[in-house]
Amino acid sequence: MVRRQGLPRPAVNLERLTGQETLAHVPHLVKIYRAAFGGPPWHEDEHAADAFAERLRTDTRRPGFAAVLAGDDGEPAGFGTAWRTPAPFPTGRAYDLVRAELGDAVESLLVGALEVDELAVSPHARGQGLAGRILDLLCGRADSCWLLTSPRAADAIRLYERLGWRRLTGPDADIVVFLRSP
């Protein structure tokens, strides 16, 4: 995207989406996913992007599902998806790693909280506070929110710490879990 010098940058538009509205934007979300997670530390390939699209079709039916889509000058720039963590605390996916790190505390800390499953910002839109704005809109109505990331994702870890999220796992954990509560 080329901008002429001296012209003001258009405002990034954030839109909160329902599950059904999210499905209408799957191609945009997959495009952002590929751009955001194709490089280090993730190195997600086309298969992973296709798997994300398939997961998204299922995730939109979860109780409490919410999404935020950010657009920059008419182009998709970022998104976040979330839902309420059910009781009992789930198994599979990364849930088993979270339980291994936090033990039985997952039930009191994370069950019922809004679980941020994906947060992605396209490389062209980074460094403008967009991830924080997406999280604020996504989590704004929730009493508490949690998310996880890889210990290799140093930029993401710094972002969550800068935004005031509380790290629940130690420095040597196999997964990094953050909590935001009032």
UniProtKB/TrEMBL annotation:
Classification via Gene3D superfamilies: 3.40.630.30
CDD domains (alphabetical): NAT_SF (cd04301)
All residue ranges annotated as the N-acetyltransferase domain in the record: 12-182
SUPFAM superfamilies attached to this UniProt entry: Acyl-CoA N-acyltransferases (Nat)
Pfam families per UniProt: Acetyltransf_1
Highest taxon, organism lineage: Bacteria
InterPro entries assigned: Acyl_CoA_acyltransferase, GNAT_dom
Protein name: N-acetyltransferase domain-containing protein
Species of origin: Nonomuraea longicatena
Organism lineage string: Bacteria, Bacillati, Actinomycetota, Actinomycetes, Streptosporangiales
